[in-house]
Amino acid sequence: MKVMKFGGTSLGKPERMHQVAQLITKDSEPKIVVLSALSGTTNALLEISTAIAHGDREGARENINKLQEHYQNFITILVEKEDAVLKALAILKEHFEFLNIILSISFSEALNKDILAQGELLSSKLFSVYLEEKGIDHLLIPALEFISLDSNGEPMIGSIKVKLTQLLQQNNNKNLFITQGYICRNAKGEVDNLKRGGSDYTASLIAGAISASVCEIWTDIDGMRNNDPGIVNKTIPVEFLSFDEAAELAYFGAKILHPACIWPAQQYNIPVKLLNTLKPDAKGTIIQELSKHNGVKAVAAKDGITAIKIKSSRMLLAYGFLRKIFEVFEKYQTPIDMITTSEVAVSLTIDNDADLKKIIKELKPFGTVETDKDQTIISIVGNEITQTPEILKQIFDSIKTIPVRMVSYGGSRHNVSLLVPAEYKVQALQLLNKDIFGL
Ligand code: ASP
Ligand code: MG
Q1: Residue nearest to atom 6 of ligand 1 (CA)
Q2: Which of 20, 18, 29 is nearest to 214 (CA)?
Q3: 248/2: higher pLDDT
Q4: Mutation probe of ligand 1 site: the residue of 47, 191, 199 with most atoms within 8 A of C-beta
Q5: Pocket of ligand 1 contains residue 181 by CB under 6 Å
Q6: Model confidence pTM above 0.85
């Protein structure tokens, strides 16, 4: 059985949805198809819930109406036959009535999650109506029935496995299953989600749970590129990546894949393919256990980084110092990305500075604290690159004109990360493209 996930842009126009139907019926292998919301919908829902949270009911109502109109136009092209049109209209009625009811309820976080869930519910139900119109046998299986989070907000893959296997067994006469990405239930049984872009994560959790033959992530670009095509003139496709390389790239800025989606695939050893709905026969990128090629595969950049330096002579020869510092970040649930230390100072980076002021206040007793905002992490990723000394030389020769604030090397064998002021990002990516890839 394989898993195929389609992102918002692959579903965002009725014609694209028609094309997805073709893609999932090309071969006879049983499938679970995971769908995102139509492009733009989750953003629109977020605006609606933000407006409600701020008491702007008029603004929310306006946005709901706008969204409803968009869907009404969408279904006039999506389906033709009268009974399909009626079914599609009934689905819109159900979900937009729900949104309008919410307008009169007082706002809560649980309600926010309910609002955000409407996008995937709509896309999957409308797609199912279209498949039915075309006589394509399938079953819509609600993600809310089998994807759940534990009390720490982590997906419970064991429970997904049990519930999903049961669902599949009960319907073993079916070959094609459609479900929603992103949405799930939390430990309290409420509707929740896997965070923005989380449909990839749903797909790989499902792939892991059913030991799928492959987890295909369909978007509208040709797999992973060696660099950011928006910044450098020329990029080349990356055909193979190991799970470790893909995890570093997805985390450090390559927008194509949700970083969390690597671990389930890696743990259950399911190859992940990144494919393009606009060019279905293109090779794309295959992510699997062993990368076939050594050397640098790609560079990626992550913006919006803040560097924090804590300097203290008390750190000299002391132990337990780092723990105390890390505990401050743990308290504010702020992940640390890069760390470098000297005997009297430690520098680290965060990308979520929501609690920066409080963090600095609590760090002050440990020494002098300095922060640098607007930094960018440039990550150079490739199999075993830290085992190849020339690569390090090449990297530093290439960016010799750029003031590097931090370097992280040796944390993994597949990554060298540099922290540079944001204004040097473009130059750094261009230089590396020229000197490392010859592009
Ligand atoms: N619809 C959700 C989002 O826009 C999840 C996804 O598309 O993966 O973030
Ligand atoms: Mg996405």
Answers
A1: 197
A2: 29
A3: 2
A4: 199
A5: yes
A6: yes
